[in-house]
Design brief:
It is built from 19 helices and no strands. By secondary structure, it is mainly α. Helix 1 packs antiparallel against helix 5.
Amino acid sequence: MTPAAPISERGVVLAACVTTGTALSMSAVSGYILDPMAADFGLDSSNTVMLKYIPSLFAIGMVFLAGVLGDRVGRRRVIILGAAGFTLGALATGLAPHLSVAVAGQSLMRASESLLSVVALALLSATVLDPQRRASAFGTLGVVKPLVYLTLPIVAGFLVTWLDWRSVTGLWVIMGGVGLIVAVRFIPRDSGDQGAGELATPLLAGVALVLIVQVLNSAGSDGLFSTPTLLRLAAAAAVVVALLAAHRRLRRPTLSFAPLRNRQAVLLFATLALIPVAALYYATYLVFQYAFGLTPLQISLIMIPAQVVGIIGAKLAGRILNTVGLTRAGVGGFASFAVVQALFLFVGPGGVALTATLMGLFNFIAVFVGVVLSKAIMDTAAPSEDGTTSSYRAASARIGDALAPLAMTALAVGTYQGSLEARAVDAGLDASIVAADAGDLVDAQRAGDEAPPPPAQDVMPVDALHEAAMLDALHAKALAGVGVAAVGGMLFFVATRRRRDDDRATTAV
């Protein structure tokens, strides 16, 4: 039985969950307002892209600064700053008279999002130290994401449909305000606070991460050896060199490289980066729409049970960790991850019910594995470096998110195009049937997002050729996911095998 947590500890868990939910609320519903906002401002396609991608750069660039600030000046202060910035950014977006104000507001929200998510995880890790309560706390935190993605898209869809896009920003204002109140009320004043230090190293690390992500994005859109990709690669290398030089010259650099010297942590970071590559969320949305002809609203409704099951997976993760230990829980999770993805190979024409059922199983395992991985990574944190470790964890996830579109393009879209052309030729049809740009099927920034697509599109007319080609694409992505899950399981086992004695001791408590 898990021992009862002190009141202050329960308050910290609550604060970490609420502020994490605030951070996730923007990603969960931003897709609902992008097109209406662009239409309101009269944007062309290039400006619409700018509205989407410029704010995302701020989220990535703040990852390392967030962890350092949390450890140095206090996690309470940083979370309060993040919640206030999120609220102000939402207000600016909702009241924006023109594009520049909207971009500034969204950028402030994205930067605050990183402050909240990185520091909230570090706060929980540094506060909850009892092994059994710690596992339960990570399981509780894992509930937040599926809960947010279950509820907020429905609310946002209603607001956009019956009011306008600016009403959605009111939802963000409420989330930010609640996060601010909870942080002030429940986070101890002495949380973190080791004194201020230099900010050059975390800023340089953030710029380097932005450029690395841009290299991966450019490789997917322009090609690995294209001029834009090579230029970004050269810029990333230059910033990394500058970071190493600054780190060596400073007597007490605030950004620690200790997590990168920890073999266990590095293996776990690599494992985390693989998860988005194996994700089937977006590929399944494409199958629902392009193979089964469902509207985005129907897809949103079908995905509700999957998010509910994800909540259950998060809660069970804490109990299973306390029962079987970290290594067994993680290896078993990855094995199940591979099995569930292999089951997608049985999806055939008209398999809407089977696909929806498998997505529930997939989300259950994905959330479970996410909780186990987060705990494993934060368990590697040295004393007083929970924030830095949380930053490296977030950076690994960002790199995984950038790798996901590459896998999506190469496997799903590539298979779809090739299969559709071959089937068209076999049927004696003009191969120009594939002339439509299939690249539009992939969102280059968030290919593995769990949020349902906004209910603003029309149903996609489907014929037998398109349905068969899209199912081929799903099968190719699922097969690759089996391989990625197997590699992830092996990496996790190697990283945590030294903890098996600790696991047995925890289980015996």
